[in-house]
Amino acid sequence: MSTSVEQILASYDQGAPLSRAETIPSAWYTDPRIAELERFNVFSRSWQLVARTEQVQTAGHFISTVVAGEPVVVVRGNDGVLRAFYNVCRHHAAAVVTQPCGHASLLHCPYHGWNYGLDGSLKGMPEFEGVENFDRAKNGLVPIRVETWECFVFVNLDEHAPSLLDFLGCLVARVAPLKISRLHYFDRRTYNIDCNWKVFVDNYLDGGYHVPHLHKGLNSVLDYKQYTIENEDRFCLQSSPMIASTEDAATGATRKGDRAWYFWQHPNLMINCYEGYMDTNLVIPVDADHCTVIFDFYFADTSERAREYNENSVSVGNRVQEEDLGICEDVQRGLKSRAYRAGRLSVRREAGEQLFHRLLAADLRHKPQA
Ligand code: FES
Ligand SMILES: [Fe+2]
Predict the structure, then answer these.
(1) Which is the closest atom of ligand 1 to the Cα of 109?
(2) Three-class SS state of 249
(3) Which of 107, 242, 272, 323 could form a disulfide linkage to 116, CB 3.0–4.6 angstroms apart?
(4) Higher pLDDT, 49 or 2
(5) pLDDT for 223-274, tens place per residue?
């Protein structure tokens, strides 16, 4: 008899102290029913990063993307208000906006030419005379909640969710001194990985456990013994003092400052900072066995003068990512083995992973109000 979703969820003990805790069981990483439940209980109820504020700074500028499988458009109105909508035409459901970003004075559906204003209102429908009981005012694009923090735009598909600032909680005060909004966007790298999205998050949250083994270059600039792990409400901050590297010139030249700051906000956002540098990692589930991770790189100086330095810095980030990618895919294969059910956690290193597993368990066990 196959195991029910309830049985799978019940097989994790979120109350165990770290010294006795197990990881979430392997079925959570491999069962498509868990992936589908996450789409509703995790990704449709949390604030999701969708854009940079500078992409939608002026009237008519838009971005389009997909959140929890839902097409989404974010657009700045002529009145200066930032709005988000389901990017689904009210006529026959085509995507109204088909470019990932751009500028428009009207949102024009490419299928039969319906037009929507930047405020989502339905403005015009060709050849629709004679249609009865059709209320144009009730056929605008369906709105979604949108809010901003620092240089980021977030949406939330849950109209009853707490505000973005409540969701981010203590993260806001911890990130503020780093002044990340002063940095400038430089480049993006997208990785398609053959692993469950949680394998990537676990790998990020192991408190540097894997760094000396897997990332020799990165390890040469971190004071590994002093690496700290702090859990807060919905985020974990991993931080390490930096040391001057003589072993790896490229890493030493591009990972500078007194400390490295690695923030993870539940469920799928990482913000990594060094002096004059930030990259964000957004982990997007595709299905139980696949995810996409988007890295955006920001620098203090993005002038032509700094281009070569910035490109070298992105290459260093890319190398670390390649090292992680192979191991994540190996782990996904291992999680499917009959030999593995769940693992234990290092008390010194893996508190962040336990926070993630507990928050995830709470999300998955949440019953929507009828
Ligand atoms: S689906 Fe958009 S106009 Fe028909
Ligand atoms: Fe890593």
Answers:
(1) 2
(2) helix
(3) 107
(4) 49
(5) 989 999 999 999 999 999 998 877 788 888 888 888 999 999 999 999 999 9
- pTM here is 0.96
Ligand 1 atom nearest to CA at 113? 3
Compute, in angstroms, the gap from residue 104 CA to the centroid of ligand 1: 18
Q: How open is the CA angle 66-31-36, to the nearest 5 degrees?
A: 30
Mean pLDDT of the chain: 96
What's the 87 CA to ligand 1 centre distance in angstroms?
11
Ligand nearest to the CA of 113: 1
Q: Look up residue 94 and give its amino acid.
A: A
pLDDT at position 141 is 98
Q: Does residue 370 surpass a pLDDT of 60?
A: no
Question: What are the structure tokens assigned to 289, written together?
Answer: 């066995």
Mean pLDDT of 325-345: 98
DSSP 157: S
Residue nearest to atom 4 of ligand 1 (CA): 112
Contacts of 191 (CB under 8 A, 6+ apart): 292, 293, 294, 295, 321, 325
Record the tokens describing residue 348, joined without a space.
């010194």
Task: Please name which ligand lies nearest the alpha carbon of 95.
Answer: 1
| Separation of alpha carbons 313 and 214, rounded Å | 19
Q: What angle do CA 350, 41, 234 make, to 5 degrees?
A: 40
pLDDT tens across 55-66, in order?
A: 999 999 999 999
**Gap between the Cα atoms of 59 and 105, Å rounded:** 8
* pLDDT at 221 > cutoff 70: yes
Cα(174)–Cα(270) distance, rounded to whole angstroms? 14
Determine the Cα–Cα distance for residues 73 and 61; give it in Å rounded to an integer: 10
In which residue are the tokens 């281009």 written? Answer: 307
- Give the helix/strand (H/E) hosting 168: helix 164-168
The candidate with the shortest Cα–Cα distance to 301, out of 150, 189, 185, 188, is: 185
pLDDT tens digits for range 24-60: 999 999 999 999 999 999 999 999 999 999 999 999 9
HSE at residue 278, side-chain half, CA atoms within 13 A, is 18
Cα separation, 6 vs 303, whole angstroms: 54
